[in-house]
Structures are given as structure tokens and as C-alpha cells.
Amino acid sequence: MRVCKGFAAMVILAFSQTLFLRLTPHVFAAPAQSPKGLRAGAAKLDVTPRLGLSVPGNMSDHKGAHVHDPLYVRALVLDDGRTSVAVVTCDCVALYDETIAAAKQIIEKQTGLISDRVAVAATHSHSAGPTVSIFQSDADRDYQRWVSIRIADAVRCAANNRRPAQIGWAVGSEPRAVFNRRYFMNPGTMPENPWGKTDDKVKMNPGVGNPNVVKPAGPIDPALPVVAVRDSDGDPIAVLANYTLHYVGGVGPSHISADYFGMWADVIEREWAAPATVNKSPMVAMLTNGCSANINNVDVLGSSSKTRPLSPYYQMDKVARMVADETLRVLRTVQYRDAVPLGARMSRIPLRVRKPAASEVAEARAILEQAKGRELRGLREVYARETILMAEYPDIMEVPVQALRIGDLGIAALPVEAFVELGLEIKQQSPFPTTFVMELCNGYFGYVPTVEGHEQGGYETWRARSSYLEINAAPALVGAALDLLKGVKSSEK
Ligand SMILES: [Zn+2]
User: Fold this and answer.
1) What average pLDDT score do residues 318-327 get?
2) How far, in Å, from the CA of 441 to the mean position of ligand 1?
3) Helix, strand, or coil here: 223?
4) Separation of CA 4 and ligand 1 centre (Å)
5) Measured between alpha carbons, how far is residue 419 from residues 92, 276, 385, 401, 448 in Å?
6) Residue 304 pLDDT greater than 90, yes or no
């Protein structure tokens, strides 16, 4: 953006702003009207995969057979006249570092937005396209490449759509849709883990009404921070929210769906948007995921019936409506301001990988030898394959952590499925009065339980391509996020 500044200033001198925008819609320049005023633009583009590709998010693979609702990349670009930042969401289970790096390269070339100032988060729909390889589902290279391009195109369109704007935020709460999904169980009732042991102290998703459940093993985070952006006429440009819920699920067989993230956005875009006008880009609603690795929407201890299976999408629609209603309530309380300082910082921290020992690899090979020629069955076989694949991983990975600043609002971004405790700690210790954390942002490095969570065991700790960072990854990531938040806060005002 900076390279265009001098040229843009000359053009602005020569033409009125309206004429300038008409003639050069792709030139990203300092704001013409008020030098320190905010400009903002948003856009969304379809990333629905073709049918027949893997739908990652389950232990067994299945191929997409029906599109229930389209998947989108959604982008918001904010520009304070000196700095620009972009937040992007993608309807998918996760995005690799490489996919995002490819997108950011194009973004920098096309818009001047440098990679540290762009946050790209996966929503974590478990019914989307093959962006990553998880358990028996493999990523699809062509789809990954196309998603990279669409992310870049969405940011470019959002930048094209920038216009003078106001921004504000407020925090709501919706505790009814979120439950900690890890439970302590009665002694002697823990089923075997993939290594045939029953020494896990907690069980994920023990089932509604399970009489052996003792109590949840951790907290929830009901907060619903909402950022609202509108133009100088008061027409909404974008809504960016953050809610700490893994996903809802309950789709039809082999369906493609953006899960409740898409349904929430439909409600907000329908009920918060200004009446459509031909000369304005439509409002875009974006729901980012908080630290929700151990949070789901299953009321294990509650009275919800387990005898009557819910029809597909029933629960998803209910949760989307509940979270959207609270979002709409919060939106009506937002106080807007014309100018806020923007900032962003990013760093990569080295974290060790929990590599399998040679004896574990040999054991895994023996298990797979027995399963040769047929589909892998059960935890033992599925995790044996994961053990062999993990042996090929590097010993250390450079994990990107990011912090964004929008005035007095701080946003931290972690490229992992983080336990809710990480988000709560970052929010509590943040130097900003309001902070939220986007998980699965700028990459995918598996689950990150707390140190205590590792001691408790359970699915999220079982070593696989979905959980492999060192046991101390949680304090390292929290520390890095807090350092970045402090850094971005103390930077130029
Ligand atoms: Zn998940």
C-alpha cells in the first residue's frame, strides 16, 4: 500500500475523490477524505469443493456427495491511513501454513498488505473441503491451491470495496450452547486408548446420560465478542465475531456444509444488513473460532433426550440462531468511532514434536502388517498409521503466533486447536481491555492441551497428525501471544 502513496496523493490532487475511485478502483491509497479516518471493505467468495473429494474431520474418510450449503472465504480489510490489516475466515476444518503462505504471497503482490498483517483463520467446519490430511482423509493439492487463490482474491475484493468507515465492538455472552467435552469417569470405566491402556483420567464425549460420568474436566468460555464496521451512511460493512465452540455437526450423509458458522452468517447478513443498494458491496458477517479444542455442543449431563435422534441440521440451526440473536443484541449496543490505530505483529516460536520412539514405530508396523490390504479399523490401527507418519515429522516446528490491534481491542491468533484454558488466560492477562483469541489461524499444528490436560490424557492428547506438539506448547503459545499483544499495544499510537 505504501508504494502507491505518492502516486495516489498526486491523483487525489488532480481529481475529486469520486472520480478517483471510479477511475482507479484497484489503487490502494491513503484515505482521501480524512487523513486519519478509517476505511474498511469486506468481501466473500465461494470455496465449495466439487463433489467426490474427501471431507476431513472424522476418523474414517468419506467423500462429499451433496452440497447442503456453500462454503465461503470471507475477508475484512481495515485501513487507518498508515497501516492496513486483514482478517480472513475460511469455511474448512483447518488450513496448512503452506496454503496460507501461498495466499499471503499473492496478497502482498496484489494489495501491498504484508503477511504479518493478514490473519487467515479456519472456521473448523467438519463438513468442508480437503484442505488438510486428518486420519483417513487426505488433502487434495488442487483444492488447496484453489483455496489459496480464493483467499487472496477475497482480500483483494475486500480492499477494492474499502470506503470511509466507523468501527466499534462490544462483548456478549451465550453460555447455553457450550459444554466442556472432557469428563472424569467412575473408576474402572475408562475404555482402552489406541495403545490398549485404560489409564487416561478423562474421556472425551462419553455420551449423553452416561451413568459413569463424574464431572467435566475443565471450564467453558461463553464470551461473544462482536466487532461492527459500518460506512459513513451507517450501512453495515462487516460483522466480525468470535465464539468458543468446536462446531455443531449433525449434517446429512456426506454433506458439504459450513456448519453453524455459515448459518450464523446467513442470519446476520440477512437481519443486520442495510437494504441492498446497487452501488455498495454487500455486508459480510464472519464468525471466528475461539480456543475450543475441548468445547462442544453436547449436553452430556443435561436432560436432553438421547432416545430420539435429531434430524440433520436441527441442532446446528438452533445453535446458529441462539448465537446470532446474542450477536444482534450486542450489535445494537456498539459505540462507533471514526479513527482507531491499527497494528499487527507476528512471530514464529520453535516447538518440539512428540516423536514416536523406534520401538513404537516397530510396534505400529506390526499392527499395520496384519491389516494389510483392507481398510484400517478401530483406534489401534488408525493410530498405528499415525505413529508411522509422525516418525517422518521434523523434530522442531516453527509455529506462527500473531497479535492484531484495532484501537483498544486486542486479537491474538494461534495456529492450533487450543484448549479453552489458553484463551481464558490470554484474555485475562492481555494488556487490552477487550481481547479475543482466534484459533486455527495462520496454520494447523494440531491440538494443544494444557500441561494438566496432557497429564489427564484423552483423545486430544493422543499422538497423531492431529496432536503432536510438545507438552509445554500451551504455556509457550500463551506467553508468545501475550508478548505480541504487549508489543502491538506499545507500538505507535
Ligand atoms: Zn475438530
Assistant:
1) 98
2) 14
3) strand
4) 42
5) 19, 40, 25, 16, 6
6) no
